[in-house]
Design a protein that fits this description.
It contains 31 helices and 33 strands. By secondary structure, the chain is α+β, with helices and mostly antiparallel strands. The protein starts with a helix and ends with a strand. Keywords: ATP-binding, Ligase, Nucleotide-binding, Nucleus.
Length: 1059
């Protein structure tokens, strides 16, 4: 019986007729194709699932493009000749058939229908063509082609293509022959079946089964297994969910059949990527520019225990056999320490490694090592492989380990398992580079931004983000959203303004009938492809008015431009079109032999701005050109001489591919471009939701994007090994005498603040505003403690607050005193930071790190200290330093400076301080008690008036590793300090007059304590008529530090709302 092919043609014809319905307003709410497919399956469901129907054959006819294992060796030109002979066409009808080669609006299938309708075949009842017959015929034709898969060639027979196809065409109507022709060419375009919905209507489990076994044969074998064979093909939604969970317990990948890949989303900006991450913890993996391979190991297969599948699903083991010894060594197959006994499936990227340079090589190098079905393609102009160049495998996932289905495990567990299974071999086998980022952190946006800057600087292709707590496929979880289980791809060319852009010339065009059906909305379509040319002799043309010469370097089609651009080129190009045989405006040459021939040249070439994802060397070429090029816009105001010449193209490619010598400078450049490059509105198309892209398909060339407002989220960067927070203390311009002065004679000035409110106005030599003090003669080296009061008075008279100490780098420098000394000497070149002026000017926020005192105990870090001429002990010197810190805290300078960073706190008479504390070097309780004691003694001795309220925060020195300058306004944000509190907070010492605790004075034997705090009273209990002095309290609430950030937004300026 079988399934009649004409029934499938009914579905395809109905979908073709929906073109008009799709243009209506109603189609925006409901896709008419969905309704058409649903009705068709309802009518033929019984026949589809009949025992005599070969469902593999039916699916192969419905989705011919998925049979990547079948290559027929029949392109449109060869197929048209075969069809002409099969039908016995005369010259006139043969000319009608060949009209597909001209811009007539019909492809080869359409012309076949027109020719056959002139003399329709008579088909007796019961003799209709079935999908089973078509599938058998196509399997025989594919078996003769060496580019077909191993299984397709296994049943290789001597087959006469004309005779085989003649039996099919002579039993088909004109309409059915049209779809048969398109099926052989593996494209029903312009008709596209809604894949997921069609597969689900075929059987509700089929989409999930194809993910586990990406072949129709394997998926249908699972459908025929027990107990799934008892499931109805289309149950109600509630039953479908229950049956799906039962089926998943029985299903597992099978070695020898490729596992599908998850869908992914393209991140159109850093903000878009951050939004799609949606607070999840994600693995950020480097995207390598190589060939994807899925490696299956099955020890029960005696002939091919190791199979390698390409991205398309084709078995390419024979072509990639050079990497098999590396795989065996890395997975330790046959050795006692091998981590699996029977079977394993891993994923990786095939790359080329250069032992001489110790680095990965460009993607174009890989074709010298991997043949295509035994034939080396596109290497005519490539240099031969060198002895120090070889293939390398970069593993990044594991899907099956014996009977353990790793697909159901979260990514973090799969990654740990992969580390146990794979033995890394330098230059041969390794694990993909990975970073882990929790997007629930307040600083996650900036972490991602800084990490992406690093990736661009190192010339990586990009990142792939995978949720750490999610399985490989979303089918293993229920009740999840559309983002669950989907990867996110982040590449610079996805973000407007960040890709490689050039102005290039379109000098010619040609027509390809295969693309014509997809461009049916363009009236008067004349060309489907356009030729990119580069000037070869611009200097000669300019100097001697010589005839221009162009080299055609690439050809672009409908995937490289929008429909509007294609229509513009077709309409305007008509006025400049000339035949190449008679055109003498300029000379052309083709860059390599694989390029098609231009049928039209433009008298005035189009100058277009083109975007690419880096540069590549095309197959068979000796030059570089843009990779994945697409047109952004047409320049109507540019002259031909302004476009990129061939030499300029090669220079741009070399520059883009080379890793910069100064990575920090390069990262700063990309940081600016990341912030401003997303604002190119003319290339932005808003979309209500992201659209998933199947990972098994080629890279999409769409340039749509999401608009990205300027980010104001504060953040911390821990991926990098630089410390710009302290580097920010260095000044670009330093006085020459500070350079020439010997380091042992240089007075080590402490970090002080400039109080402009009391600067002598008579002195015109004093610098106001943001000037930096680099020499401070009035602050000589610190003397004995008896001089402190005199020094303090001298400083206050000149407008300087009490000196305080700072640190340079984290405690890792303790083991390298010489390196530390050099670092300190560089930092001494700029030690003074100005405080905000109290003069009348517009209020603007200022980083708290430049307005509050910061102290580092000498015992906590190997940091520099203030100069001293006395012979005091270490403890005495520390006490002296602490006194100066408290004195600075109690002075008017920090209080006035606080007005810029924390206006509300300043108005309440609050002061803040920071103590950088290293728990490895000293005890937290000891330091907090010492500071509380010093504060109490200040009040007892009347040395200074302690502000009514204040807080001193103890933070870890690791906060100095933050990739921000101390004057960065993001330190004004509350979210920034909340993040710092989570990572670096140890404790807080605060005082408040509103406290009314029955505490005791410092020095008594017992102390007041609560569950998470303890207190000290600054003075003995006063009389009731005297206002109570503040109560010092020690707490360990990390959220308390958020008070340092008084803003929730900088642009626009928005304060935290206080009740």
């Amino acid at each position: 019986m079988g399934f009649k092919f004409t029934l499938l043609c009914d579905l395809l014809s109905n979908l073709d007729d929906n073109k008009t319905a799709k243009a209506s307003t109603a189609a925006r709410n409901q896709n008419p194709d969905i309704r058409t497919v649903g009705q068709w399956f309802s009518r033929h469901e019984r026949t589809i699932h009949h025992a005599e129907t070969d469902r593999v054959a039916l699916l192969s006819c419905m989705f011919p493009e998925k049979r990547t294992d079948r290559v027929y060796w029949l392109q449109a030109m060869q197929l048209s000749r075969v069809i002409g002979r099969c039908l016995g066409l005369g010259s006139s009808r043969l000319s009608e058939l060949n009209r597909w080669q001209t811009p007539c609006g019909f492809d080869l299938g359409g012309c076949v229908e027109i020719v056959m309708r002139q003399a329709e075949n008579y088909i007796p009842a019961g003799q209709e063509l079935s999908v089973e017959e078509i599938d058998r015929a196509m399997a025989m034709i594919a078996s003769r082609c060496r580019f077909s898969g191993p299984l397709a060639r296994r049943n290789r027979t001597a087959v006469d293509v004309e005779e085989t196809l003649s039996k099919l065409y002579r039993r088909s109507s004109g309409r059915d022959a049209k779809w048969l022709t398109r099926m052989i060419l593996k494209s029903y375009s312009p008709v596209v079946l809604p894949e997921q919905y069609t597969l689900k209507k075929f059987h509700f489990l089929l989409p999930q089964l194809l993910q586990l076994q990406n072949s129709f044969e394997g998926a249908l074998e699972m459908l025929a297994s027990d107990p799934i064979n008892h499931f109805p093909p289309n149950p109600d939604p509630q039953s479908a969910r229950s049956l799906s969970m039962i089926a998943l317990q029985q299903l597992r990948p099978r070695p020898g059949i490729k596992v599908g890949r998850p869908d992914y989303y393209k991140a159109r900006s850093i903000k878009h990527c951050h939004q799609m991450a949606n607070g999840r913890r994600m693995s950020i993996e480097q995207k390598y520019d190589g060939e994807y391979c899925q490696i299956h190991i099955d020890f029960s297969n005696k002939y091919t225990p190791i199979q390698i599948f390409s991205k398309s699903g084709k078995d390419s083991t024979a072509d990639k056999d050079k990497i098999i010894p590396v795989i065996e060594e890395s997975l330790r197959t046959g050795l006692p320490d091998c981590k699996f006994a029977h079977r394993c499936i891993v994923e990786g990227e095939l790359l080329v490694w250069n032992d001489q340079d110790g680095e990965l090589m460009d993607f174009n190098k890989i074709r010298r090592f991997i043949p295509r079905s035994g034939t080396m393609i596109g290497i005519d102009n490539d240099s031969p492989p060198q002895p120090y160049e070889h293939l390398m495998i970069m593993f990044f996932d594991i899907l099956l380990l014996d009977n353990d289905v790793c697909l159901a495990k979260p990514h973090r567990e799969r990654r740990l398992l992969l580390q146990k299974v794979v033995k890394t071999i330098p230059g041969r086998a390794d694990l993909a580079y990975q970073e882990v980022l929790d997007f629930n952190r307040a600083d996650s946006y900036h972490r991602l931004e800084r990490s992406f800057e690093k990736a661009i600087t190192k010339r990586w292709e990009g990142y792939v983000l995978k949720a750490s707590d999610e399985p490989y496929f979303p089918i293993y979880s229920t009740g999840v959203d559309h983002m669950f289980g989907r990867w996110i791809k982040l590449k610079k060319d996805y973000i407007p303004g960040l890709g490689d852009t050039l102005d290039l010339a379109l000098i010619g065009a040609s027509y390809n009938a295969r693309d014509a059906p997809d461009l049916g909305q363009i009236k008067g379509l004349k060309w489907t492809h356009f030729f990119v040319g580069c000037h070869l002799n611009p200097e000669h043309v300019k100097e001697t008015n010589a005839l221009p010469r162009f080299r055609i370097v690439d050809v672009i089609g409908r995937h490289c431009m929008s429909i509007q651009t294609m229509q513009t080129l077709n309409q305007d190009g008509e006025f400049y079109a000339r035949r190449p045989e008679t055109f003498e405006g300029f000379d052309i040459e083709y860059g390599h032999s694989a390029l098609p021939t231009a049928t039209t040249l433009f008298k005035h070439p189009f100058i277009v701005e083109m975007l690419g994802s880096g540069f590549e060397k095309p197959s068979g070429a000796r030059y570089f050109t843009l990779r994945f090029p697409r047109i952004l816009k047409i320049h109507s105001d540019r002259a031909l001489e302004e476009c990129t010449s061939f030499n300029e193209l090669q220079i741009a490619a070399e520059k883009a591919r080379a890793v910069p010598a100064d990575e920090l400078e390069e990262r700063e450049k990309w940081a600016k471009r990341l912030k401003v490059g997303s604002g190119v509105d003319k290339y932005i198309v808003r979309s209500p939701s992201p659209e998933a892209t199947c990972s098994d398909t080629d890279e999409e060339t769409s340039s749509t994007s999401f608009q990205i407002p300027q980010a104001t989220t504060a953040s911390e960067e821990s991926f990098m090994d630089v410390c710009p927070l302290m580097e920010g203390l260095r000044e670009d311009s330093i006085r020459k005498d500070s350079h020439n002065r010997p380091c042992n004679d240089r007075p080590l000035s402490p970090l002080v603040y400039l109080n402009e409110a009391i600067l002598p106005t008579e002195d015109k030599n004093l610098v106001l505003g943001t000037s930096i003090l680099v020499d401070n003669e009035n602050l000589s080296s610190r003397q004995h403690s008896s001089q402190n009061d005199v020094m303090m008075a001298s400083q206050e008279s000149l407008g300087f607050s009490c000196p305080m100490r700072t640190t340079s780098f984290i405690s890792a420098h303790q083991e390298h005193p010489q390196q530390l000394q050099e670092t300190q000497e560089r930092l001494f070149e700029r030690l003074l930071v100005p405080a905000p002026s109290k003069q009348k000017r517009q209020m603007s926020p200022q980083s708290p790190l430049t307005t509050i005192p910061i102290w580092t105990p000498e015992t906590s870090l190997g940091s520099f200290t203030l100069p001293r001429n006395d012979e005091k002990s270490s403890n005495e010197r520390e006490s002296c330093d602490l006194v100066e810190f408290v004195r600075c805290l109690c002075s008017d300078g920090p209080a006035s400076s606080l007005q810029q960073s924390n206006p509300y706190a300043a108005s309440q008479g609050t002061v803040f301080g920071i103590v950088l504390f290293d728990p490895k070097a000293t005890c937290l309780g000891k330091e907090m008690h010492r500071l509380a004691t010093t504060l109490s003694r200040f009040v007892h001795t009347g040395t200074s008036r302690v502000p009514s309220m204040g807080s001193i925060f103890f933070l870890g020195p690791s906060m100095l590793e933050r990739d921000l300058r101390p004057d960065d306004l993001r330190f004004c944000l509350r979210d920034t300090w909340a993040g710092i509190g989570r990572d670096h907070f140890y404790g807080c010492l605060s005082w408040n007059p509103s406290k009314r605790c029955d505490g005791i004075s410092i020095g008594q034997s017992d102390a007041h304590s609560e569950s998470n705090s303890c207190g000290y009273e600054m003075t003995p209990e006063p009389a009731r008529s005297v206002p109570r002095t503040p109560w010092i309290e020690i707490t360990f609430d990390e959220t308390a530090i958020a008070v340092l950030g008084e803003y929730i937004s900088i642009e626009p300026l928005a304060h935290v709302l206080y009740k």
